[in-house]
Amino acid sequence: MFAPEVLGPTVERLAGLAGDGRALEFAVGTGRVAVPLAERGVPVAGIELSPPMVERLRTKVDEAAIPVVVGDMASARVPGEFTLVYLVFNTISNLLEQAEQVACFRNAARHLVPGGRFLVELWVPELRALPPGRQATVWHCEPGSIGLDTYDVLRQRVVSHHVRFGEGRQAELFRSPHRYVWPAELDLMAQLAGFELESRCADFSGAEFTAESRSHVSVYRLPPPRV
Prior knowledge:
Blueprint: H1 4-18, E1 23-26, H2 34-39, E2 44-48, H3 51-58, E3 68-70, E4 82-87, H4 98-111, E5 112-123, E6 136-142, E7 145-152, E8 157-165, E9 171-179, H5 183-192, E10 196-201, E11 215-221
Parallel strand pairs: 1-2, 1-4, 2-3, 4-5
Antiparallel strand pairs: 5-11, 6-7, 7-8, 8-9, 10-11
């Protein structure tokens, strides 16, 4: 996620969408994307729920460079208006209820100027890889680490398990819960907030989104008011 071949196309795409305006990152974290985007010349602000994450961001840039509001991206407000709001690296799935995800779209709309855009990067649920009667899929496996997802299809929830281990019998486990969202459901959330789908690609480089794509970058536009 920090590799130049990942960050480069991400920053270029976001800068193009922001144009001459300001950009707002929901769940700005430690500034993985916000810092290089600001260095690219785009004024960037952020919303972040975790104060420790903001503290790490402050070791890179100060409040004047990237102002941050500590709060929930589904409800927190940042002063001013923006031409772009963006949410990368599957973070909308950290909101575990559908109503919270809809509120996130509406909060994005509240921050945007007419004609502004909301970009969402999200993975596609891999339910086709889930054998009948099984609850888990392995998404990563290499010496020293394994990753698997356990699904609760009734509640549309998934828990990602990240396991690291050495040659001994001990292992380190990190787990993160998510609510998975299909692209069509995401589009409906956008409509409820007044957005229109403008484009959908498989990645930030603009690869075509197909039935085999494992993720997507979707751009929603807030239409200007009708005269």
